[in-house]
Amino acid sequence: MPLLKLVPDNTNIDFMRWRNVALVLSLMLTIGSIVLVGVRGLNLGVDFVGGQMIRVTFSQTAPIEDVRARIAALELGDASIQEFGNPQTLSIRMGLPEGGEEAANAAGSKVRAAIAAQYPDAVFAVDTVSGKVSNELYRSGAIAIALAMLGIAVYIWFRFEWQFGVGALTTLFHDVAVTMGFFSLTQLEFNLNVVAAILTIVGYSLNDTVVIYDRIRENLRKYRKMEVIPLLNLSLNETLSRTIVTSLSIMIALLVLLLLGPEVIFGLTVAILLGIFVGTYSSIYISVPMLVWLKVGPDSFVSKSQPVGERVTSRNESF
């Protein structure tokens, strides 16, 4: 039985034909995302703004609508209420009210009393995050993302050349900006789970970019007389099967989690799903065209003592 091939062996798509259109689209997405985050802001979760998370476990299916009504009657401000792990457990997230931690504890006590009055067998677990701790978490999350991107750019620079490092860093900045812009647009809760998702996106996008860059470097050594645009198209088509199979397999798993998984990881799943899609696009239409705009050519990395027209045997041809 022949193996199923999503991409035929003789595929020859002219990706670089659309590089300028992709540049305009990417610039619009990136700038729009930055403006959205700056103007609309992010719906920061308790992890970053402080407050309380109260987990309530009932002996039967959690009466989520009744709990919502009881908490709304207390007039304590907005509260995020959703299932947590199983149908018997609810997660109640409340922001930090005026008055600091003492006011938050008082509000938490009112919530517990209101629920316990109707459901005396309910079991409570309370986590409180102060404003100081939340600011530290926000700062640490931002630093983690920035250092990850910088470290990756340096790694690419040393493994390949500085042009590749600039291309990888630009690609990662685009992916992170678009993901944060999406969360600003939809106002989905932005918490530590989403920060973990962004770091995952950075790692996936880097992996895809490195695979393509490695093939480009090999082809630059093999085909010294080939023009750079056809060479880049050749490299993208040679790695296209791997890119599509990897992206599709991950996205199918994430779609299942999105439809059937618990609400507590909804933001994480959405962020990674969007990031995989955007990362696949950017690895083709940002990281590779950047090499053209940075004037990379077949003779860019050739030693001056080595003839430009010489064809060098690649690692794959040596076996």
Structural summary, described in words:
Helix 5 (131-159) runs antiparallel to helix 6, helix 6 runs antiparallel to helix 9 and helix 7 (192-222) packs antiparallel against helix 8 (228-260). Helix content is 62%, strand content 11%. The protein contains 10 helices and 6 strands. The strands form 2 sheets. The chain has a 4-stranded antiparallel beta sheet. It has helices at residues 19-39, 46-49, 64-73, 100-118, 131-159, 162-186, 192-222, 228-260, 266-285, 287-293, and strands at 43-44, 51-57, 79-84, 86-95, 123-129, 189-190.
SSE blueprint and pairings:
Elements: H1 19-39, E1 43-44, H2 46-49, E2 51-57, H3 64-73, E3 79-84, E4 86-95, H4 100-118, E5 123-129, H5 131-159, H6 162-186, E6 189-190, H7 192-222, H8 228-260, H9 266-285, H10 287-293
Parallel strand pairs: 1-6
Antiparallel strand pairs: 2-4, 2-5, 3-4
Task: Quickly list its features.
319 residues; alpha+beta; Multidrug efflux transporter AcrB transmembrane fold; Alpha-Beta Plaits; four-stranded antiparallel sheet; two-stranded parallel ribbon; 6 strands; 62% helix; elongated
How many β-strands, per DSSP?
6
Q: Could you describe the largest sheet, including whether it forms a barrel?
A: 4 strands, antiparallel
CATH-assigned fold name of the largest domain:
Multidrug efflux transporter AcrB transmembrane fold
Architecture of the largest domain, CATH level 2?
Up-down Bundle
Taken in chain order, the helices and strands follow as HEHEHEEHEHHEHHHH
- Which percent band covers the strand fraction? 5-15%
* Strand order of the biggest β-sheet: 3-4-2-5
Class by alpha and beta content = alpha+beta
CATH class of the largest domain, named Mainly Alpha
Low-confidence stretches: 304-319
Helix content: 55-70%
Give average pLDDT, whole number: 79
How many separate domains make up the residues? 2
Rg, Å, rounded: 25 Å
Shape: elongated
Instruction: Please identify which CATH superfamily of the largest domain we are dealing with.
Output: Multidrug efflux transporter AcrB transmembrane domain
What is the count of DSSP helices, taking H or I runs of 4+ residues?
10
